[in-house]
């Protein structure tokens, strides 16, 4: 194997890993804000992809970036109202967290079946405007979308950090995640902030859904496989940690590609979960195990 | 400024914790609410700031009723509640904690000016502005929550046991600052178990004993009645 091929594999792994990382990030954001583990994150991601399909291919035939923006807006709005009408009432009534968890599983099933009914079972695709002409670096073959996806995620992560650290709203989101009752004494409307966190997480889901477009064909059950990998990323990186989500996602994505290439692709999923179990044994809580002071 | 009339509060509808208590906090003064463990001091503050709903009675700020409003609305009207136990946001820096104190009325220039004022009041916080609040000492955390409570320019600042668990010398420092804050024009409702230190700074005091106000008056008078007060604060059986 040449160095070029190896670089190519790593870039491929990073691309897949960033998708997992975005989903993991969304899971951690919600976990911090509301103590809820959102099992429907993968299906929200899939839904984001299907909206993109509708906006750019099936119905409106909008240009890529317009469709992308619209998918984010639609998914964000949906997240806000889902939080208001579905999640927050459960959290507010101090329902047992296990029951809320089942509530998120239920949502996942509903979304998946809705997709199946609306868009049908067969695999579909939307195009990206970055071209299919590979870029050759040495003998590494890199697709333009691979570079674009990486750049988009880097920009996104930087913006998200700036938002959480530098704006009052972002600081308030972190405050609510740490101490909701004290936050309400600061005059923060906790329900509203939790809804904004959901909004943010469904925006992330839609972005991940669009970026998955060139990597995997859209099928209604795409969410189940993606979310399982994203959950592995969350647990490997550390539940609730920003850096953990990123690193966990990259570890899963890269090792998945390397394992399938060098060993066997049949057992790549088994390998990921074996790795997760080992890491949880050696370092329960994940690599970036959260001390309260690091919580996003 | 703050008037509490016939306040009754119970948790979950059983046994009331407060039985028709009356408290009056005049503008510009420090009023202390003293009492032993479980007397109902924190419950009184929670009722004022809207964290618990009263069963009966009225709470008024400058003649405006606060009953039934949400904690955010009450905060906006100018009531700042600094809860017991030094509740900093551990994962936010000192400066972020202060900023969040001004959340209800966030204007960049005002916030900047207030933060500078609080740094002048507590120079210790200025030195540690970028430190995570969770890693600070107890005394520093107490300074931080008081500073955070001031960030919204409240009409009345309610402090729940600021002396709790701090060494006497630190407590003295904190109470000097509480007096200074009051001299700068903020009305204060102070909750304490440490009667001596509270009486040394307050103008009026109320003594709460298992849900009833058993003693009240200007601090000099209460100080004269020290034996009686101590028997109430001692929590001895049957005194109330
Ligand atoms: N959330 C709650 N649910 C049920 N009972 C409560 C609750 N909070 C307080 N109580 C009860 O109300 C009574 C008064 O409590 P409160 O916290 O007001 O006392 P306190 O005077 O502040 O005491 P301390 O000095 O120990 O803080 C106690 O008997 C307490 O057990
Ligand atoms: Mg108390």
Structure description:
The complex is a heterodimer of chains A (296) and B (240). With 296 residues, chain A is mostly helical. Chain A has 11 helices and 2 strands, in the order ααααββααααααα. Helices cover 73% and strands 2% of the residues of chain A. Helix content of chain B is 38%, strand content 25%. Chain B is built from 10 helices and 10 strands. Chain B has helices at residues 41-49, 71-76, 94-101, 108-121, 123-127, 138-150, 168-183, 195-201, 219-224, 226-233; strands at 2-10, 16-25, 30-35, 56-61, 64-65, 79-82, 156-160, 187-192, 204-209, 212-218. In chain B, the strands form 2 sheets. A 6-stranded mixed sheet of chain B has the order 6-7-8-3-9-10, with helices on both faces. Chain B has a 4-stranded antiparallel sheet with strand order 2-1-4-5, covered by helices on one side. The two termini of chain B are 29 Å apart. The model of chain B has no long low-confidence stretch (mean pLDDT 91). Classes of the chains: A mainly alpha (296), B alpha/beta (240). At the A-B interface, helix 6 and helix 7 of A face helix 2 and helix 3 of B. The site of adenosine-5'-triphosphate has 12 residues of chain B, from helix 1.
Tell me the Rg of chain A in angstroms: 19 Å
- SSE sequence of chain B, one letter per element: EEEHEEHEHHHHEHEHEEHH
Beta-strand content estimate of chain A: under 5%
C-alpha-based Rg of chain B, rounded: 17 Å
Q: Pairing-aware structural class of the strands and helices of chain B?
A: alpha/beta
Total strand segments of chain A:
2
Q: What general form of chain B does the structure show?
A: globular
Which assembly state applies to the chains in this document? Answer: heterodimer
**Average of the residue pLDDT scores of chain B:** 91
Largest interface, with Cβ-Cβ < 8 Å? A-B, 20 and 26 residues
Sheet having the most strands of chain A: 2 strands, antiparallel
Strand content range of chain B: 25-35%
Given the structure, what is the number of helices of chain A? 11
Strand order of the largest sheet of chain B: 6-7-8-3-9-10
Can you list the strand order of the major beta sheet of chain A?
Answer: 1-2
Total beta strand runs of chain B: 10
C-alpha end-to-end distance of chain A: 40 Å
Mean pLDDT of chain A: 90
Largest sheet of chain B: 6 strands, mixed
Helicity level of chain B, as a percent range?
A: 25-40%
Uncertain stretches of 5 or more adjacent residues of chain A: 292-296
